[in-house]
Amino acid sequence: MPADRPATLAAWLRTRSDAQLAELLGARPDVARPAPSDVVTLASRLAVPVSVDRALDELDAATLQVLDVVLLAPTDGVEAAEVAAALPGLPDDVVAAAVERLTTRALLWGEDVLHAPDQVRRAVRYPAGLGRRAAELRVALPADLPAAVGALDPAERQVLERLAGDRPVGHLPEAGGGAASPARRLLQAGLLARIDALNVELPREIGLLLRGPEPYGPPRPEPRPAVVEREPAVVDRQAAGAALESVGRVGELLAVLEEEPAGLLRSGGVAVRDRKRLAKALTVSEADAGWLLELAFAAGLLDVGGAHRDEWLPTRGYDVWREQPLADRWATLAAGWLESTRLPSLVGQRDVAGKGVNALSPDLVRHTAPAIRRSVLTALAASPPGSGLAPDDLVALLRWRTPRRADRLAPVPDMLAEAARIGVLVGGVLSSGGHGLLTGGEEGAAMRMQGLLPEPVDHVLAQPDLTLVAPGPLVAQLADTLSLVADVESSGGATVFRVTESSVRRALDAGWSATDLHDLFTRASRTPVPQALDYLVDDVARQHGRLRVGAIECYVRSDDHGLLSQVLSDRRTAGAELRRLAPGVLVSGLGADEVLGVLRAAGYAPAGESPGGAVLTRPPARPRAAGRRHGALPSPAARPVTAAEAEATVREIRAGDAALAARPAAPVRQIPGVTTAGTLEVLSRAIREGLPVWLGYVDAQGSGSQRVVQPVSLAGGFLQGWDERRQENRTFAVHRITSVALVDEEAPAAGNG
After folding, report:
1. Cα separation of 381 and 364, whole Å?
2. Closest by alpha carbon to 702, among 730, 680, 673, 682?
3. Residue 560 in contact with residue 553, Cβ under 8 Å?
4. C-alpha dihedral (287, 290, 296, 302), degrees to nearest 10
5. Angle, alpha carbons 156-161-163 (nearest 5°)
C-alpha cells in the first residue's frame, strides 16, 4: 500500500474533515454517546457488532449489493472504479451514492481503494446470497467443475440452482428406504457441504458458476410502483369522518368502563367475557371492541387501576382529553397508535400454545412496531399530496429499502388498515393529518386537522319518538349529562340518544328532579320538547321515591303500606332479607346499597334516604387509573444527534487525538492528588484568553473521562467551566484533573497522571 494511504480505519478517520465526522455521528448516533475520547475509541465503537448490524439494517438493496462487491473481492481492497464496472445493471450515479452512503457510515473505508472492516465481513454472512468458499467449508471440488455441473441430471441441477439464489443453505431431506435424494447425491459428489446434521451449504465457487454473467445477482434498483391518485380534499373529508368516528367510539368505550370496569386477567389483558360485554354496549363487533381497547391504551387513556390494581379503568388523562378540542383528541389517539409497541391485529389469534390472544395482553408487544409504522408513513409521505401506493406495492418498496428487515414487514397490511380506521390515510394516500403526525408529532397532527373536524355543538334536536339527535359532536358537559339521562342508540356524525323509563329513573337516582329534567330538555333542545317526553318524565317521577331506603343496617319505609306488603311478599326481593318493623317500615341486616340494588333489580323504584329524611343522592364515583402513554421510547443511544452535539463531539475527538499524539512514549506518572504548576498555568492561560481545553478528569467514583471544557474561573482549588459534552456548567476539583491541553495546541500539560 502506498505510504500516503491510511492503513487502518482509525487512520482513515483522522483524514476525514470535521463535517464528514459530524455526518458519521449523525448517521450512526449509537457511537456518539458518550462522546468518544479520540479517533481510536470511535473506530472501536464502529466495530461493535450491535452497531454494525443496526447500520446494515438501514441500508437499501442497491447499497447492500455495492457492499457485496467489496466483500466478495478476492483480495482486501477494491478500486472504486471497479465497483461500478462490476454492477453494469445499476446506473453510475446509484453506485456512487451507495459508496458515499457506505463510507459516510464507515461500513467501507478508503478513498480510491475501498476496504470493508472485519466486523462488517462477519456481519454479512452470505454476501450476495453466496455461500462460503470451498476451502472454508473443507470441501474438495471436482477438478473440472463446469463439466461436473453440466453432467448433473435435471433434479440435481434444480437443487443447485435453488441454492444459488438468495440463500445458499438448505435442509437435507431424511434418508428414505429407496434411492438417495438429489441433495444426498450432490453431497456424496462433493458439490454440497454438510454444515450440521440437517443442513447443507452450496460452496461459493458453484454459486458463481451457476449465476454466470451476474455473479452478484440481478440488479436491484429502486422499484417504481404505480401511483394511486385521489383528490386531496376528498381524502381529507374521508379522513375527518374516520377521525370523528374513532374519537367518538373511544369516548363511548371509556364511559362504559367508567361505569363498570373490565377485570384484569392474571395473565394480563381483558377477558373475552368483558370484550363481549363492551361490544354489546357499543353495538360493535368483538374485534372492533378489542381494537378500541388497544387504541385507548396506546393513547394513555386506559390503564390498570382500582383498589387492588385489578381493573381496567379510564386514566386521569381521560378527564383532560375529553375537555380538549376534537383535533387535539384525535391527535392524541393517532400519536399513541404511531408510538405503540403493540400489534392490535393479533387480538383473537392463536399463540404457539394454541391459546387465543386477549386484548391488552402482553403477548401483543412487538418492539419493532413503531419503526415499521413510521417507515410506512415515510414511504407514503414521499408521494405528492393526493398520491399514494397500493398495499402490495408499498410492501415491495419497503422490502427494497430495508431488505435485512424484510421478515418484520408481515404486519404492514394490518397497520395500513389501522391507519385508515383512525384517519391517518385513505385508500393508500396519506391525509393532511397523517402528514402532520409524521413531521410534527401530536402537535403537528392537531394543527393539520383543525378546520377539518366539526366544532362541538351545545344542543340537540328532540324528536316525537323520545329520541334526541345531536347534529355533531357534543361539548363535554352536555355529553356527560345526556349519557346520564338517555341511552345512546346510534353514533357517528350525528349521535342519537333515546330517553327511556330506565334512563329517567337513572337520572332521578343520581339526584335529579322532574323539574330539573324538564329544564334540561327545554334548554338543550333547539326543537320544541314533545309532550310524550314530558309525560314520560312525570310518570317515572311519580313512582320514584315512594319507597325510601336508609341504614339501620338498613330500613325501607313508605306511606303506602300495601306497597310494602307487596315488596315483603315478592320472591324477587328475598335477597334483601327484609322483615317488617312497623306498619310503614321494613328493616334488613344488609347495607343500604345492597337493598337498593335488589329492589331496583326486582322492578321497583326506591330512592335512598339520609338520616334527616331527605332523598339521598349518590352521584356515581369516577374511579381513575394513574395511566401513562404506552409508546416506544427511543433509547438514548438511538436518539438523533443534533448538529450542535455532533460539532461538540468532533471537537472532543480532535482534542483527544491531539493530546494523545503529543504525549511522550513513556509519560511520567505523578502521585494522584498532587497538582502540578503546569496544570495551573495552562488553566490560567485558557481563562485569560478564553480558550477551550481538553481535560482528563477522574470523578469521585474513580471513573476517568476526557472532555472539552471552556474554563470560566479558577479559585479555591476548583475550576468552573462549560462542559461541551454535557452542555452545562460544571465544577471540577483541580486535584482530580489528570491532564490538560489547549484544544488548539499540540502538547498537553501532565497533571496528576
Report:
1. 27
2. 673
3. no
4. 160
5. 100
Given its phi and psi angles, is residue 724 left (phi above 0), alpha (psi -120 to 50 degrees) or beta?
alpha
Question: Could you tell me whether strands 548-550 and 607-609 are parallel, antiparallel, or unpaired per DSSP bridges?
Answer: parallel
Query: In sequence order, what are the beta bridge partners of 124?
Result: none
- Grid look-up 428414505 returns 176
**Cα diameter, the chain:** 115
Rounded-to-integer distance, Cα 359 and Cα 86, Å: 52
The pLDDT value given to residue 447: 93
Bridge partners, residue 474, by sequence: 457
Please report the pLDDT score of residue 400 as a whole number.
95
Which residue numbers in the chain have pLDDT < 70? 1-4, 175-179, 307-308, 492-493, 551, 616-622, 628-638, 659-676, 725-727, 744-753
CB-based contacts of 407, cutoff 8 Å, min separation 6: none
Residue 580 in contact with residue 589, Cβ under 8 Å?
Answer: no
Alpha-carbon span 132 to 193, nearest angstrom: 10
Which residue spans within 475-539 are E strands per DSSP?
A: 487-490, 495-498
What pLDDT is recorded for position 653? Answer: 86
90 vs 741: CA distance, rounded Å: 50
What sections of 131-271 are H helices per DSSP?
A: 134-137, 145-150, 154-163, 182-188, 204-211, 232-259
Sign of CA dihedral 639, 641, 645, 649: positive
80: buried, middle or exposed (CB in 10 Å: 19+, 13-18, 0-12)? middle
How much is the pLDDT for 176?
58
Q: Report the alpha-carbon distance of residue 474 to residue 673 in Å, rounded.
A: 71
- Pairing relationship of beta strands 113-114 and 78-79 according to DSSP bridges: antiparallel
Pairing of strands 495-498, 461-462: unpaired
Q: Which three cell numbers stand for residue 9?
A: 480505519
Backbone angles phi, psi at 363, to 5 degrees: -65, -15
CA angle, residues 630, 632, 636, in degrees to nearest 5: 130
Q: Roughly what angle, to the nearest 10 degrees, separates helices 92-104 and 61-71?
A: 80
Q: Three cell numbers at 57?
A: 439494517
pLDDT at 418: 95
- Note the pLDDT tens digit of each residue in 96-118: 999 999 999 999 999 889 999 98
User: Residue 715: what pLDDT?
Assistant: 80
User: What strands, in cross-sheet order, belong to the sheet with 429-430?
Assistant: 228-229, 387-388, 429-430, 425-426
Beta-carbon contacts of residue 520 (< 8 Å; ≥ 6 apart)? 481, 485
Instruction: Evaluate whether 347 touches 297 at the Cβ level (below 8 Å).
Output: no
Cis peptide before 34 (omega within 30 of 0): yes
pLDDT of residue 638: 58
Say what the pLDDT of residue 343 is: 94
- Cα dihedral: 539, 541, 546, 552 (round 10): 150
**What's residue 190's pLDDT?**
87
| Spatial distance between the Cα atoms of 403 and 86, rounded to a whole number of angstroms | 21
Contact 94, 62 (CB under 8 A): yes
In this prediction, residue 510 carries a pLDDT of 82
